[in-house]
Predict the 3D structure of the following.
Amino acid sequence: MSILPILKERFRAALAGLAADPAELLDLVRRSQEPKFGDYQANMAMSLGKQLRRPPREVAAEIVARLNVADLCQPPEIAGPGFINLRVKDSWLIERLSASVGDPRLGVATLPSSQRRRYVVDFSAPNVAKPMHVGHIRSTVIGDALCRVLRFLGHEAISDNHIGDWGTQFGMILYGWRHFRDEEAYRRNPVEELARLYRLVRRIMDFQNAKEPPAAVDAEWSRLSAEHPHLHTAVLAETAKLHAGDPECRRLWSEFLPFCNDEIERMYRRLGVTFDYTLGESFYEDRLAPLVDELIRRGLARESDGAICIFLEGQKTPMLVRKKDGAFLYGTTDLATIRYRMETWNPDAILYVVDHRQSLHFQQLFAAAALLDYDRVELRHVSFGTVLGDDGRPFKTRSGDTVGLEGLLDEAVRRAMEIVSANDDAKPDGPELSTDQRRQIAETVGIAALKYADLSQNRTSDYVFSYDKMLAMNGNTATYLQYAYARVRSIFSRGGVDVEALRRGGAAIRLDAPAERALAIELIRFAEALEMTVADYRPNQLTAYLFDLANRYSTFFEQCHVLRAETEELRQSRLLLCDLTARTIRQGLELLGIQVVEKM
Ligand code: ARG
């Protein structure tokens, strides 16, 4: 266990009998922002003093008198109006660090079985046959990181890619196929041809929907538009035929789908993301009608204007589950999906990593699920903000399309290649990497930069996409952390250190210099950072931790000689700190789905 939960436990005991609601006060046990206030601080004496109508300093003194932390902290100090400052004992830190040296889990305990939960994590979920966009990266990267961290802590995380393989986009492609297909192009590259058909139909529809005629009326589009009037209705009709089981539509759909799936699969391989299940919307197709019938039978849904709706308490608009024309909706499928997941896995929680624009949908969905008696499972919309361009608007390419994922990855890798090459060329003893090595490193560094840029943002805020920022060698970036890792590793190769032997050697860790101690405290906080990451499903807690760790390491490296340490004992101790730092960075990045490189 990390320090914070231990401290909270001790405070809980100290507050028993003193505070009516200790749980709330325990949130006020926190890490200190400044070393002069110790390593951790407890700031509950002020609010407790108010409750008890007693001077806060007096309350603080009473808490301290009841507090039993002698095994891990120096005697607590009371400061200012009643802050309790705690400084962890060096001996405790040393003991923990020494145990981590030989521990593959770096001192992070696996949860006891009573605290393990089963999660279903619903993430990525692109609408296939439609080009994936930058928002899907965000979901993919955050969802994957959450699964990894949950599993590392000992939870079970079932990843399920709820791909959109049954929606209107297929109606568009079916229409496009009937009217615009180029058989030759389809044989050469099916996905490209399907994407072309999708874009073509999309553009005609957009042209027809435009409120004002475009400034310069494009002859080509007005001709197409005139030749295909009421395109929107026609597309919906194709979709309805598919859903109604029209054999030709079904045949085409099952022919197209594998091509679309291959395409996204390729993207996942490049991103290093896998799923336990890919149960798309089509999987639930034959469960929709019976579900709606049941809702009606149980009086949970009723007719309104020919449509079937669930009227939810506290919600302004009802949730539509069947349209007047008999079509089912996105939400109907999601409701059937909850039922399936509960019946199949009976999870403790289902997380939906989906952008914030769908928050109303999830509010309604969760309320409807509660009506179906799924009220003990934690249903959680892990929502995230929009990726913006320089202009502060949703990120688009110059042509106005949302940016395709593949192009995004390629560009990040291309720029990473420039950085890796410049870096290598500038090495004092001349370049050490072959072109092939550079290329491999650039792929790792480029993809890492992209992922980390998503993960390091507070997920609920929008953020501005910038290649320069995400690949910066300084700052809170993957590149900086990968570089920090590679630098630590280079100490071992330069010093001819046998790392395995070092770990087995059992040398004593010493924390005499302030920078050594500061690094040690940070190393010990790894478990705490992971717990904070899953507490509110925020990977930026982990990136912030790794960034702090790399900074502490950097100060340590400036202030303390490692290979040229004053004594052999000190050299061994510092090498152990280096090794723990490298391993923590590598493990931390791995939990974010990011790889390290040995050389950069
Ligand atoms: N396919 C949807 C989209 O691209 C996201 C699906 C999210 N998951 C869910 N169970 N609704 O917008």
User: Anything to note?
Assistant: The chain has a mean pLDDT of 93. The first helix runs from residue 3 to 15. DSSP finds 24 helices and 13 strands in the chain. The two ends are 34 Å apart (CA to CA).
